[in-house]
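Posting this for the archive.
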Amino acid sequence: MEPGMHDARPPATEPEDRAGDPTTPNAATPPSPEPDLHAALAVAEAKASEYYDGLLRAKAEAENTRRRAQEDVSKAHKFGIENFAESMLPVMDSLQAALSDGTADAAKVREGVELTRKQLQGAFDRNRLVAISPVGEKFDPHKHQAISAVPAPEGLPPNHVVAVLQQGWMLADRVLRPALVTVSS
């Protein structure tokens, strides 16, 4: 440089204390976010463990409920006829007593058979076993099975039951055996 020319640079000075300047390497750095992440991870892992435990408990409860339901169905199949069987025992006792009676009195035998029939009817009633007696009713293919057709008698319209050849039976609302019938044509 020539004398008289000024250097446009400012004169070198001692470095100032730049502790407050965040761009300097010696500046104090803000606290690291790592401890917050570790705490959040620990909380998330605890919640995940809690949810997993709840899932396992719910799954075990569902399996226990399914197993109990299967056992109930199995018992229902095995013992479903128990009430009916219990109501049939007195009928069997009466029939055995009638067979062991050595008297030849027809009136006593008839009386015993009638009492046994009443016991049987009571057992049927308790267990909702109902006879289908459709004489005079309109033919219903769900409850009746037509064996033959005859000309309609006086006063009976066509397609009605004239006679029952074999009684039908219903259990509650289900047909066990349709009645065998003769139908008017």
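Strands lie at 129-132, 144-150, 161-166, 168-171, 174-177, 179-184. Residues 34-79 form the longest helix (46 residues).
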